């Protein structure tokens, strides 16, 4: 699963370059999670997961607090969770997750982004079957054996634990996100280089330089859309 980890690192690095965009997206996601359940992360697992992810992107406390207070205040702003599937150049596949208060606007913008940048929209299920929902954690300063021992003591089975570039990567079932996080934190690990719920491709494709440039442009345009939260894909990025 090594190259998949590199893809996650690369996507995170690209997003980190535009902090205002990623902060706005997390603000929206935190608001939705807080409004759908309790505004207390200890009583709302979905909110706790979002906050842990936000921490790895260094989202300021002011943005987090503002989103939670907005939810507490009973704002009538409602968002729908949407998933679009599509194709890019030469066998590349994309899943686009969005939160929107205007479904028609978002659908139109996503369709246009695909159509104008070498891609095309697919029907529901045309791409998702090639991906697997996965919880991913990155831990530095430990060995794979260290992490395996911690998780075994907590009686948690995970898909895989690998070491890459001085980082231990844990791949787990998405519903194990909280359990893995809690086990690691109880063992004294409170900082994660990555803590993500993502869609990992079962198989990845390599693109030519020309197709890669076209593909990256498509991803950039999609991620720039206000309503798009995450873009998942099956393209192997260069190390």
TrEMBL record:
Domain TACO1/YebC-like N-terminal: 3-74
Keyword Translocase: no
Name used for this protein in its record: Probable transcriptional regulatory protein J8TS2_24860
Record domain TACO1/YebC-like second and third: where: 79-235
InterPro entries tied to this protein: Integrase-like_N, TACO1_YebC-like_2nd/3rd_dom, TACO1_YebC_N, Transcrip_reg_TACO1-like, Transcrip_reg_TACO1-like_dom3, Transcrip_reg_TACO1_YeeN, YebC-like
Coiled-coil boundaries: none
Source organism (scientific name): Lederbergia ruris
Domain of life of the source: Bacteria
Keywords from the named record: Cytoplasm, DNA-binding, Transcription, Transcription regulation
Family: Belongs to the TACO1 family. YeeN subfamily.
Location in the cell: Cytoplasm
Main location per the UniProt record: cytoplasm
HAMAP family per UniProt: Transcrip_reg_TACO1 (MF_00693), Transcrip_reg_TACO1_YeeN (MF_00918)
């Amino acid at each position: 699963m090594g190259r998949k980890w590199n893809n996650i690192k690369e996507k995170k690095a690209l997003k980190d370059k535009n902090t205002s965009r990623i902060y706005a997206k997390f603000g929206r996601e935190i608001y939705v999670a807080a409004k759908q359940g309790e505004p207390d992360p200890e009583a709302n697992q979905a909110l706790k997961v979002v906050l842990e992810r936000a921490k790895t992107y260094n989202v300021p406390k002011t943005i987090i607090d503002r989103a939670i207070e907005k939810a507490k205040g009973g704002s009538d702003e409602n968002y729908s969770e949407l998933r679009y599937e599509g194709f890019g150049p030469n066998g590349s596949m994309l899943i686009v997750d969005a939160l929107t208060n205007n479904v028609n606007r978002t659908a139109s913008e996503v369709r246009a982004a695909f159509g104008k940048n070498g891609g095309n929209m697919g029907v529901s299920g045309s791409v998702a079957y090639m991906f697997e929902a996965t919880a991913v954690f990155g831990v530095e300063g430990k060995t794979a054996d260290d992490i395996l021992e911690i998780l075994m003591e907590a009686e948690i089975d995970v898909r895989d634990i690998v070491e890459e570039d001085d980082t231990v990567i844990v791949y787990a079932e998405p519903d194990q996100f909280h359990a893995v996080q809690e086990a690691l934190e109880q063992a004294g690990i409170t900082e994660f280089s990555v803590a993500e719920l993502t869609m990992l491709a079962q198989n990845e494709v390599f693109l030519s330089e020309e197709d890669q440039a076209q593909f990256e442009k498509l991803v950039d345009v999609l991620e720039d859309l206000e309503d798009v939260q995450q873009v998942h894909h099956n393209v192997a990025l260069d190390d």
